[in-house]
Amino acid sequence: MPIGLAILTFFLTEGFYLVTRNNLEAGFLPSVILAGLLWLAATIWVARWADERNNPQQRTYKVPMPRAFAMVKSVLRRSYNGTARWRIHDDDPKAGCLHASINWFDEIDRDMRWLAHNGRLERMITLDCYLTANEDGTTTVQLCWTVDSPISAMQCYAVIGQVSDSIDYDLTSAEVMSHERTARSA
Fold first, then answer.
1. pTM (2 decimals)?
2. CATH 3.30.310.80, domain 59-185, yes or no
3. Which of 69, 88, 145, 151 gets the highest tally of CB atoms within 10 A of its CB?
4. Which letter does DSSP use for residue 58 in this model?
């Protein structure tokens, strides 16, 4: 995206100079400078956006940590992408750490064979989840995502969105159910 924006800026600036001054040479240096600055700004913006997407803000839920940990594992067990399922590599309920990954292969067209000679691209998502028990009985959840995709990672981001939304939905539902039980017993 940033390089495409820079190229577009270059040609638009050159076109502006051609129309206003009738001279392409006069617009070359301003076009290069403007395209370079816009490329730098777009690259920084995309990097910040990717960092926010891969490391979202911590969320605190009114659910005890053991229950929250079990719910996160449950979401991962029932989530899938095609035939690929999440594999939980390490889980430590006492420390509140969970490491899981999912990987799958996508078939590619003939014109993209230079990316993978066997015609298949491997995509992988890794999740590091950290749960922290707070003194007031709530749990803070931090999700850290890592995406490994040779080309467009949009499919990976869709899977991340589904899993993040499912975790948030389940934990929020547990909060509501806990609140309703407390209200009934009072």
1. 0.73
2. yes
3. 69
4. P
